[in-house]
Amino acid sequence: MSRGAIADGARVIGTILMIAADAEDKLAGVREALGASQIRIAASAWNGMLAVRCLGHDSEAVHRAVASVVPVLTGSRMPRVWAT
Question: How confident is the model at residue 20, as a pLDDT?
Fold first, then answer.
């Protein structure tokens, strides 16, 4: 995980995968929500799938990034249980 080509020292990895007919339509909104993120993060969409991949040095930063994406994908806030 410390090697630059793998994770460049990041200790937290996060992945969000959405498979839906409108997944590709949500890509612009996801990228906008991630614009101010303080972690290494990317989003892409193809063939009815949307993927968000992130690397961070602490879980709080990854949590904030995921929390900013969930409303774009679902139309509601992140479930409270995910915050624990």
Answer: 96
Q: Which two tokens stand for residue 9?
A: 């020292």
The pairing of strands 40-46 and 49-56 is: antiparallel
DSSP one-letter code for 38: S
DSSP 80: G
Residue 47's φ and ψ, nearest 5 degrees, are 45, 45
Per-residue pLDDT at 26: 95
Structure tokens at 18: 């959405």
Distance CA 77, CA 25 (A): 19
- Note the residue count of the chain: 84
User: In the chain, which stretches have pLDDT less than 50?
Assistant: none
pLDDT of the residue at 60: 85
CATH class of the domain defined by 12-76:
alpha beta
